[in-house]
């Protein structure tokens, strides 16, 4: 069975997470490490994908700065999005050659992971044709944006658990004028760590791999 | 001219959008270097160049969506090869992927390696010529052709537009192996069998950084006469994944925390007597030996109750106090270490702690820990005294803020009350703490609490 290491990184600034991903992608390409699933939170940040339109940012950069929100242009697919405390961000670094060489199947699988994790908390996530992500009653609960280089993935999904949804008012999420929601707003007041556990279990089922971890805190002692 | 086509990034995908050209017409491009980016659904993909040469023309501009296998650009290979400077560049960039001269391989295997490299180099030239006859080849297929020294014109392509796919090469190799069953095996037979997906990932490094494993020199046995004359001065082997993880985390911790270590001497005589008294009975009744570690762990748990800042972690500019006292115990493995966690350590007796320590250590060594058993620690203890160390300055186990190091318990002459010298069991305990959160005074109070519990040990073991 393929192995996937998972890590809980806590709250990580977007730029730092980007650097870590690049490092891991390089190692993954060299076959130096197995597949990885990074689970983390970002401090308030708004990111714009390569194909994003800046008009979907509704606030001037100075306004963001005053509100303590960072802004990044990034190399993932998708349009504009917000990350912040209470949102589980998942960055799988997978070599798709060992799974399926199919980026669309990959995105559908990420949706499946989130749908199965939501089910653990009694919520029914859905797909909406032509609108990648996971939705509940017409509101988006998880966004997806991926980058692939030589079949190795980076970026991934952003899943609102207890996110302060007010921050989405600075943007048109994913360029869609559709509302967003969170698990807490829907009455499922889960802790991030419980959600991590549900995601890891679902990831293992959907990608048919053995999850090893969390690997970060285990081995740092003299 | 080599055609660059819109690749198919999945079964159901019929078209793709060019989002960005990373090269301009006239730019030099290496084989496998990222050439352009495409977008399908919510996925952005970098597409590597199928060949080295000059980007001759771009046929599909940024922002345009085209069906898969549409030619989006052309690369002029020959032009590049004719230009002397470019040829030098290419020689420097491409062949080393197969022939890593740079890594410190000893001189010994040079001869067989050079012999192996010669046909490969020839095949590269063939490939350039043959590519024009059979159309574009993917980087993977090129690599396979080179590895097995095959002429692509002999292989029937079944891919889009008659392109040769990986499966085609594998089928060809399998057929050839069947034909050549009786006579001496072709050179390809020595190469690994058609790569499994796992092996393929390991064997397909980017051209710039070939791991030594890929082109490992042949076993020394084949070159014994030379080997004896010039024994290699070094041996290079890749780190295990666990080793890499440990390295990464140690440096991460050093970068994260402001490490300070304080060392306290503790008189363990009372604990030593207690241990002597119950050792045999514990062994008989529970089947494990009684060590000093559960006493120290118990004292540490009590001190953590008294000084909760030592049981905290840092989140940005917040202090996170953990209500549970979960103590990680570092366990040395054959070539690494792991820190399984005793949950709610403050609720356990000395016997309960000893049982947990023995159980976690045994399962750590047989690699049978469950993920949640190495997770959620709020403080750590490392017992280097068991290897004879007097004291040490351990590295904090992130995101914790302190770690206790236990030195060896030894009998030593100690000046006791009334200026007499007595023989006592003594141990040095060291605490590395994160000065971002904990000041020296607090760290030392914490240590004095541990010292006081141990020196005045009164709790019965059984």
Overall geometry of chain B comes to elongated
Low-confidence stretches of chain B: 80-127, 183-227
Radius of gyration of chain A (Å): 16 Å
* Span between termini of chain A: 32 Å
CATH topology of chain A: BirA Bifunctional Protein, domain 2
Count of structural domains of chain A = 1
- Assess the beta-strand content of chain B as a share of residues: 15-25%
Query: Percent helix among the residues of chain A?
Result: 25-40%
> Biggest interface pair, residues each?
A-B, 49 and 66 residues
**Content-based structural category of chain A:** alpha/beta
Mean pLDDT of chain A, nearest integer?
88
Output the number of helix runs of chain A.
Answer: 4
Give a brief outline of the structure.
The complex is a heterodimer of chains A (about 220) and B (about 450). Chain A is α/β, with parallel strands linked by helices. Chain A has helices spanning about 15-30, 60-65, 105-120, 190-205; strands at about 1-10, 35-40, 45-50, 70-75, 80-85, 85-95, 125-130, 130-135, 140-150, 150-160, 210.
What do these coordinates show?
The complex is a heterodimer of chains A (222) and B (462). Chain A is globular and about 45 Å long. In chain A, α3 (103-120) packs across α4 (192-207). Chain A has a single domain (2-216), classed as 2-Layer Sandwich (BirA Bifunctional Protein, domain 2), CATH 3.30.930.10. The model of chain A is unreliable at 217-222 (pLDDT under 50). Chain A is α/β, with parallel strands linked by helices and 222 residues long. Chain A is 25% helix and 31% strand. Chain A has helices at residues 14-29, 61-66, 103-120, 192-207, and strands at 2-11, 35-41, 45-48, 70-73, 80-83, 87-93, 126-128, 131-136, 139-149, 152-160, 209-212. In chain A, a hairpin with a 2-residue loop joins β8 and β9. Chain A has an eight-stranded mixed beta sheet, sandwiched between helices. A three-stranded mixed beta sheet of chain A has the order 4-3-5. Chain A has four helices and eleven strands, in the order βαββαβββαββββαβ. By secondary structure, chain B is an alpha+beta fold. Chain B folds into two domains: 2-229, no CATH class; 243-455, 2-Layer Sandwich (Chloramphenicol Acetyltransferase), CATH 3.30.559. Chain B is 34% helix and 22% strand. Chain B is built from twelve helices and 19 strands. In chain B, the strands form five sheets. In chain B, strands 9, 12, 15, 16, 17, 18 and 19 form a seven-stranded mixed beta sheet that branches. A four-stranded antiparallel beta sheet of chain B has the order 1-8-6-3. In chain B, α3 crosses α4 (139-148) and α10 (293-306) packs across α12. The longest helix of chain B has 25 residues, at 110-134. The N and C termini of chain B lie far apart (85 Å). Residues 80-127 and 183-227 of chain B have low confidence and may be disordered.
